[in-house]
Structures are given as structure tokens and as C-alpha cells.
């Protein structure tokens, strides 16, 4: 027997009530998760920087004056405090934003590489040139990265377009909860990436990390990570530390046995942060289980909405039909 529109609407209201209760639980789980994550990030950022300064660049750190050492440490603590604030504010976003575009990683990498200089200047500036083939070897198994606006104009245009297309989250709509969860994940990754970039700039400014690697290449490499079999395995594997292998034109032309330079950078990765904090893994498991329930309700929600549309369309057809 065909259900009446009243029956269908009652089913929809009951389902939406259940979803609304799950939305409250989902928000609480995320609040707990972000609290744990923010504490873990502060600790792991300092620990990874400690490893960079003492294991990979000990002499560079020793060359700093006491004042400069303390200034570096204070700046790193400040970055940790900033990322804690940024992570905790993610849950306050109650509007859905358009999902980011994607593009081919190698196209972005080539675009960001320094432009070749004139032949007469090549010898003088060859130390600044990056061997594209070695970078390709590092990133060969990665196809796509998310685009982040890099110029003020891009940021302004992206902000304008985002503001005009935001949609307020309907916490009774399971599909909105699914999209909100994805948005939170993107925001976490973006926050970790930003903190990593700030930290690496801080380490470069303090002359810990060599300044020869262009910042845009660093950003693309950090998005992609290192590929299996890359030369970075020669260095000690440390959580949240990325090793890159670079070679200048001068290195290639030289007949000496000098090896390509290996550079170690901070790269905060959610998987490694969760591995170091078992409570984070447990909380993610709770979120995953709840999202599974919400996903199943989303299937029912769509089916009921479709059933309601059919009944309403049938009623509209009958009300508009007349015999000639």
C-alpha cells in the first residue's frame, strides 16, 4: 500500500531527530579529538625540531649564540601555541565551504621551480638550481595535491568566492554531517601544513636548515612526501621529519665524489601524530564508527526524500490533469 505524504513526512521527521542527536555527539567527539590533537602537536613539533637541531644539523645549532638558541626555541613554542588555537577553532566553523580544486603535482612542481638563468650567470648561481630529475624521483608516485592560494591576489579571490557560496550546516541532514566531517579533516591538514611551513621558515631564518632550497619546492615536496626507494632512507627515520635529496648543476658537472645534499624539514603528519598518541587513535575510531551510522542514515534519508517527491509529484499530476 502506498504511504500517504503525512506518513512519509513523519518518517522523515523521526529520522531527522535521530540525525540531530548524532550531530551533537559528533561535535563533542571532534572537540575532544581536537583538544588531544592540539596537545600532541605542541609536543611533537618541539620534539621533531629537537631532532632536526641535534641529530641532523647539530653543528648549525651549536654555532648559534645562546641568545639565538633561546630565541629559536621561543619562536617554536609560539608556533605551537598558535597551532593549538587554530586547531581548536576548527569546530567553530558551522558553514560548509566548496571543496578545493586539485591539479597535477608535477605540473605544479615544474611551475614552482626557479626559472633558468642566462648561460653566463649559470656558474655563479648554479648552487641555487635544483635538479628536477631528483625531485621527480622523490615524488614519482604522487599524482595530485590540493591547491593552496599562494599570492595575496589568489587569497583575496578565493576568499570572495568562498564567502559567496557558503551554506549553513543543517544538522538534521546526514549528508551535511558527512560534508562537515570532510571539511574538518581538510582544515586539520591545512593547519598542520601551515605550521610546518612556519616552522621551516623559522629554522631557515636561524640558519639551521640550509636556505638553498626554494620555499615553493619545499611546499610542494611537503604536500607529496617522499616516494618509496628514495635516498632519504639513508637518514634516521624520525616522526614528522621529511628528508629531501637535492643536487645543483654544479654538483652534476663536478667530477668529485660529492654526494647530493640531503635536507631535513619538519612536516607534521596526522598519521604520525595519532600513532604517537594512542588516545587520538581511539577517538578517531569513535568518530569513524559514528560516521558509519550517519552514512547509513544518509541512505535512508535520500530514499525517504525521493519517496516523498514521488508522492507529491503524483498528487500534483492528478491536481493539474483535466479532460478535454
Folded structure, characterized:
This protein has 324 residues and is mainly alpha-helical. The protein is built from twelve helices and six strands. The chain has helices at residues 5-56, 58-62, 66-88, 105-112, 119-125, 132-139, 152-164, 174-205, 215-224, 249-253, 270-276, 278-320; strands at 95-96, 102-104, 144-146, 167-168, 241-246, 261-266. The two termini are 31 Å apart. Residues 116-120, 122-156 and 226-233 have low confidence and may be disordered.
Portion in strands: 5-15%
Shape: elongated
Estimated helix fraction: 55-70%
Number of helices: 12
Tell me the total number of β-strands: 6
Low-confidence stretches: 116-120, 122-156, 226-233
Can you tell me the number of structural domains? 1
Distance between the termini: 31 Å
Secondary structure: elements and pairs:
Blueprint: H1 5-56, H2 58-62, H3 66-88, E1 95-96, E2 102-104, H4 105-112, H5 119-125, H6 132-139, E3 144-146, H7 152-164, E4 167-168, H8 174-205, H9 215-224, E5 241-246, H10 249-253, E6 261-266, H11 270-276, H12 278-320
Amino acid at each position: 500500500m502506498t504511504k500517504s505524504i503525512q506518513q512519509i513526512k513523519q518518517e522523515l521527521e523521526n529520522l531527522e531527530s535521530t540525525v540531530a542527536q548524532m550531530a551533537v555527539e559528533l561535535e563533542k567527539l571532534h572537540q575532544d579529538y581536537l583538544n588531544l590533537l592540539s596537545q600532541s602537536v605542541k609536543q611533537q613539533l618541539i620534539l621533531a625540531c629537537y631532532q632536526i637541531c641535534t641529530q641532523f644539523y647539530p653543528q648549525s645549532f651549536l654555532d648559534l649564540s645562546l641568545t639565538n638558541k633561546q630565541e629559536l626555541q621561543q619562536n617554536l613554542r609560539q608556533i605551537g601555541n598558535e597551532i593549538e588555537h587554530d586547531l581548536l577553532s576548527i569546530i567553530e566553523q558551522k558553514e560548509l565551504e566548496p571543496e578545493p580544486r586539485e591539479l597535477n603535482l608535477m605540473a605544479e612542481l615544474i611551475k614552482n621551480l626557479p626559472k633558468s638563468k642566462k648561460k653566463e650567470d649559470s656558474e655563479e648561481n648554479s648552487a641555487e638550481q635544483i635538479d628536477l630529475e631528483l625531485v621527480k624521483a622523490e615524488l614519482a608516485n604522487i599524482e595530485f595535491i590540493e591547491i593552496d592560494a599562494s599570492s595575496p591576489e589568489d587569497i583575496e579571490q578565493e576568499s570572495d568566492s568562498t564567502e559567496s557560496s557558503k551554506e549553513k550546516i543543517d544538522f538534521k541532514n546526514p549528508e551535511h554531517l558527512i560534508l562537515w566531517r570532510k571539511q574538518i579533516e581538510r582544515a586539520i591538514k591545512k593547519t598542520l601544513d601551515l605550521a610546518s611551513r612556519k616552522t621551516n621558515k623559522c629554522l631557515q631564518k636561524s640558519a639551521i636548515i640550509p636556505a638553498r632550497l626554494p620555499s615553493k619546492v619545499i611546499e610542494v615536496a611537503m604536500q607529496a612526501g617522499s616516494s618509496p626507494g628514495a635516498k632519504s632512507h639513508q637518514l634516521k627515520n624520525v616522526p614528522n621529519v621529511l628528508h629531501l635529496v637535492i643536487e645543483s648543476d654544479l654538483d652534476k658537472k663536478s667530477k668529485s665524489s660529492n654526494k647530493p645534499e640531503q635536507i631535513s624539514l619538519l612536516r607534521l603528519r596526522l598519521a604520525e601524530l595519532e600513532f604517537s598518541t594512542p588516545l587520538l587513535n581511539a577517538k578517531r575510531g569513535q568518530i569513524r564508527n559514528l560516521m558509519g551510522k550517519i552514512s547509513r542514515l544518509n541512505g535512508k534519508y535520500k530514499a525517504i526524500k525521493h519517496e516523498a517527491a514521488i508522492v507529491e509529484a503524483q498528487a500534483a499530476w492528478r491536481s493539474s490533469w483535466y479532460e478535454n
